[in-house]
Structure formats: structure tokens, C-alpha cells
Amino acid sequence: MKTRMLALIALLVALTGFSAPSEAVASTVRLDGVTVHLKDGTRQVVTVNRTDGHHARVTLWGYSDGRWQQRMQATDGRIGYGGLVVARHRRQGTGTTPLGTFGLPSAFGMHARDAAWALPYRQVRRGDFWVEDNGSRYYNRFRNQSQGGFRWWLPSSDPNASERLTDYRTQYEWSILVGFNRGQVRHRGAGIFLHVNGSGATAGCVSAPRWFIKRLMARLDPAYRPLIAIGR
């Protein structure tokens, strides 16, 4: 049965000229000096290479014709004011950016959804927060204050204060979720994104110039299993 099925597939390819898209087969690759731990089928990677202080080079790569190729690059990227730290050792409130390879599963921002965007997307509205309350079951999740379940009223000085997304209209004009701490380990940190540059270092996110993030929103495709790899 298996032999017959393979023969039918081969015949279909011959008749239609169809071929499956090329996929990255290596489990690990180095791009711009950054080690990337690939998932099966990953064909898009964003690398973040710290260059000096809180500055970094941010590059989009695509896999085609059997090799990784640079698609676009920004030299004025930013990382956290606390520098870089191994992901499992990161602590909330330290301003550090986690090292490692993470998924880019979804995005949010201040604009209505554009038809060119393939990532799951949520437009920010009044009362939307990223939950950083360690006592909440919604820790490290997008949630509106009207839904309850977290202490949205805590002042920003409180270690359990959550992030009101509308307070960051410049940085979060477009913001792509970095899949760090999706298991919701308390006190490890929440709200790590790839977003538009602010005036300086981030509080642990990765940021890049507005033009770069805007173009990235139109290029990232969940079918290509996009990743971000953060290195030194």
C-alpha cells in the first residue's frame, strides 16, 4: 500500500509540476554569529546579535534554494537595559533579555488588521493589558481588565503590576510576541516582544526601527514556523 501511495504521489508531481517548498533540515544553524535551534519546517528566522551595550543587529533570514539568505537587516536594534541572560535564569523586573531561540506565534498593535499580515493579530483596545501579576492564572497573557483575573489597578512601582498596552503606542504600534516563558513560570518574566524602537534600551524586549517591524509584519508567515534567535 505504501509503495502504491508513493508511486501515485510521484505521478502527481510529474503531471502537475508541483513540488513541496524547500525546508530547513539542519537542527542547528549559525546565522550572523547567532546559534539558531530550528524546528521542523522552519524557513524564517530573525536573529538578534548584540553589538554594543544595549544595541543589536536584527536580521530577517529566509530559507530557499537549499540555503539561508538574508532578507533585510537593521543595525539599530535594542535589547534590555540589563543586558542578556540565559533564559532559565531570567528574573522579572531585571531588564534583561533572554538568550535562546523562541517562536514568533502572534502579534498585536495599534492598527486594524492589515490583509497582508499572516500572523494571528489582535488590535489593542482600551483596557488591554499584558498580565505580569505573579498571582494570576493569566500571567504572561494578553487580557482586558474587564475580564478580570488579575490586579490591573496596581501601580507601575508594584512588582506585580501589569503592562497597560495603550501606554506604549509608539513601541507597540506593531509588536510581535516572543515565545518566552509560555509555560508561565512565575517571576521569570512576562511580556517579551519584538517591537518598534523607543528612545533607548528596552525593559527586556527586542526592538528595531519602525520600518523594519512594519515590513516584518507583512513577511512573517506561521506556515514557515518563524523563530527569533537572540545571541551575543
Automatic annotation (TrEMBL):
Protein name: L,D-transpeptidase family protein
Biological source species: Nocardioides hankookensis
Record keywords, A-Z: Signal
UniProt signal peptide: 1-26
InterPro entries registered for this protein in UniProt: LD_TPept_cat_dom (IPR005490)
Domain of life according to the entry: Bacteria
L,D-TPase catalytic domain ranges (all copies): 44-222
Taxonomic path: Bacteria, Bacillati, Actinomycetota, Actinomycetes, Propionibacteriales
